[in-house]
Write a structure and sequence with these properties.
The chain has helices at residues 19-22, 35-39, 58-72, 83-86, 96-111, 127-133, 140-156, 169-178, 189-213, 235-258, 263-271, 282-287, 355-369, 395-414, 461-471; strands spanning 12-16, 76-80, 115-121, 162-167, 218-224, 228-230, 294-298, 302-305, 331-332, 336-339, 345-346, 352-353, 373-378, 418-424, 443-445, 457-459. It is of the alpha/beta class and 477 residues long. The protein starts with 11 loop residues before the first strand and ends in a 6-residue tail after the last helix. The protein binds 6-O-phosphono-beta-D-glucopyranose. Its EC number is 3.2.1.-.
Length: 477
Amino acid sequence: HEKLPPFPADFLWGSASAAYQIEGAWNEDGKGPSVWDLYTKIPGTTFKETSGDIAVDHYHRYKEDVQLMAEMGLKSYRFSVSWPRIYPHGTGEVNEAGLAFYDSLIDELVAHSIEPVLTLYHWDVPQALQDRYGGWESREIIEDFNQYCITLYKRFGDRVKYWVSLNEQNHNTNHAYMLGMHPPAVKDRKRFYEANHIMFLANAQAIASFRKHVPDGKIGPSFAYTPSYPASSSPEDMLAYENAEEFTSYWWLDVYCRGEYPSIPYRHLKQQGLAPVFEEGDQELLKQGMPDFVGVNYYQTITYEHNPLHGGVSSGKMNNTGQKGSNESTGIPGLYKTANNPHVEKSNWDWNIDPIGLRIGMRRITSRYDLPIFITENGLGEFDKLESEDQVHDEYRIAYLKSHLHQCKQAIADGVELIGYCSWSFTDLLSWLNGYQKRYGFVYVNQDEEGGKDLRRIKKDSYFWYQDVIKTNGENI
Ligand code: BG6
């Protein structure tokens, strides 16, 4: 290795999770149902009908989990608050027991010098708001989300200085309104763009309120960034790649970081009658939502090729992050379609393994917006094996994380301002659609789709590796 500058002394070495995927206790202590609580109980929606009713029982075992973080030396921990745990009916009365749970979790983290990074929304809309007005499809949600956020700012703003507004709005809405795989499981491009517009407004409003309530804090959205590549240097493929980057990345990033939609895709969608409707005040509100950092959730890159207007793939799907078996090409006629990239390895879940793609992505964001970056997710989902004497030899995960961290170091040398890195995930957790077979954690949890296991925590080899990385501030990366 050439000699690279070290990671900053205050680098936020971390790891991440999301409420629905770890907490369980889905109907305890006054919590209301979220859209996921109901959706996963519809037969056929998830692998082996697995729900997060119990998940990895973090709600009852958070002290043990934080203890494991402390022992590892973790500097930051990203978690999400379950909105219906705080507002069981979406609005109205606050559930004090819900707030008390997060109070204790935050106190526990702070007591161990672990910086809490709080995500306001990681996909679990209160079912009450879905029933009342269709969730993200109604502008009423902007104020309801704002009130929920203000409640958290007031309660936790003294101890929590890093906040993530929306987690992967792009991935979540793509699955909810284009692919029909997340609740409310719709396939409708018009509704997709409308719901996104409302989420952009809610994001901006939540950030505007944040400035008043937590003036010394930092906030930004977490974007599922899957940087695009062209399949070849043919001008047609280059155009397809440019289309993909505009429609599947800058559509979100430009609104977050500039308060404006990128003009080419906006005009294109307007001609087709698909552009979101602007009401009075929208433009001003979007401008109030400028973030302090861009949260990047990175798993892989995607390659695109020319897709003729007539013929070729006609699925109309937009692919942001591939699912297993994503070999099937998807795209939008006239714009782009996905292609295989023979230059990168693939995981056992058919996801591209591309560490340099992370560096490329961070550089694109830096060049375009010149904002600090916080990697809020990066990791490898694999079929881990629990060996005798409670060992998990996940050297493939160590290799994945190490190569990605090396590109982070390179990116810092390139001029990217990277403030932290949260791996996905700390403990194993429920993969929304894939049960427990796809594991990401440093800590194995003895849980499966059948349930009934003892849920004990087991340190994987990667746990000890990351412990050393933190201790040496990434010196050997
Ligand atoms: C991100 C989400 O999309 O990817 C996480 O923010 C999720 O919540 C992670 O678990 C991995 O996805 P999957 O489908 O492999 O579990």
